[in-house]
């Protein structure tokens, strides 16, 4: 904990994982959220994505889809596939941004180019969202 309080990004992220997942402590998103923010200030990309997830689902913070998109976008721009997919889904659903299928396809393509995901399955997500709305 001393290293985390001193600003060590890796240590901060480990504290986040402990609180966020309940490793060695009771799971507590209220305690995890400020540590996610500290880790994002140290450019921890996965923390950016997870802070977005906290805002999307209201885990330890008030739900705020605009803030979720802000953090997903930072993670996406920094190259995190999960952030790119999450941002694409926000565009597809109109969550925190104006619904924009072209924006969704763009971010899904970026994610697919990273090799971690298949573009057809992401396009199917868009079609499912569009048809259910």
Helix share of residues? Answer: over 70%
Number of strands: 0
**What's the mean pLDDT score?**
87
End-to-end Cα distance, whole Å, is 46 Å
Q: Briefly note the structural class of the backbone.
A: mainly alpha
Strand content: under 5%
How big is the Rg? 16 Å
Q: Ranges with pLDDT <50 over ≥5 residues?
A: none
Secondary structure tally, helices: 8
The dominant shape is elongated
**String of helices and strands:** HHHHHHHH
Structure report:
The termini are far apart. The longest helix is centred in the C-terminal third of the chain and has 14 residues. The chain is built from eight helices and no strands. It is 72% helix and 0% strand. It is mainly α and 133 residues long.
How are the elements arranged and paired?
Elements: H1 2-5, H2 9-21, H3 29-41, H4 45-57, H5 65-77, H6 81-93, H7 101-113, H8 119-132
Helix pairs in contact: 2-3, 3-4, 4-5, 5-6, 6-7, 6-8, 7-8
Would you summarize the structure shown here?
The protein is built from 8 helices and no strands. It is mainly alpha-helical.
Characteristic terms for this protein:
single chain, 133 residues, mainly alpha, 8 helices, 0% strand
């Amino acid at each position: 904990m001393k290293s985390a309080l001193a600003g060590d990004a890796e240590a901060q992220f480990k504290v986040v994982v402990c609180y966020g997942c309940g490793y060695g402590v009771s799971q507590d998103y209220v305690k995890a959220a400020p540590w996610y923010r500290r880790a994002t200030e140290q450019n921890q990309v996965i923390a950016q994505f997870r802070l977005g997830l906290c805002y999307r689902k209201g885990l330890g913070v008030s739900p705020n889809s605009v803030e979720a998109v802000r953090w997903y976008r930072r993670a996406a721009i920094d190259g995190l596939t999960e952030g790119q997919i999450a941002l694409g889904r926000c565009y597809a659903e109109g969550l925190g941004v104006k619904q924009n299928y072209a924006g969704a396809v763009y971010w899904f393509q970026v994610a697919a180019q990273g090799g971690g995901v298949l573009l057809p399955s992401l396009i199917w997500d868009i079609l499912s969202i569009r048809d259910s709305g």
